[in-house]
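Protocol step 4 of 6: structure prediction from sequence.
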Amino acid sequence: MRQCQSITVHPEIQDGAPVFSGTRIRVETFYDFMRIGVSVNEFLDEFPSITRDQALDVYDLVKSQYTLDQIASLVEGPGAASASSSRMHALNR
């Protein structure tokens, strides 16, 4: 797996969910937009704090069918993988 600079995971930001670096916007939100057919340009119109490079970097992960847990493991930071894993386990209960 490769590292992804466009995503941050920190236990104190959005409960440890992967977010776009420098924002509090969850990567999961991007996935949801892509799932319903919203284009990257439309997403960027809704979230102007996200750069085009960040969106395209994450779009590559979406196209490669990375899960949110896999994305969290691409990120360095305090509790990156463990915060996301425990959040996902809580959602699956």
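Step 5 (inspection) to follow. The helical segments are 27-35, 40-46, 52-63, 68-73, 80-91.
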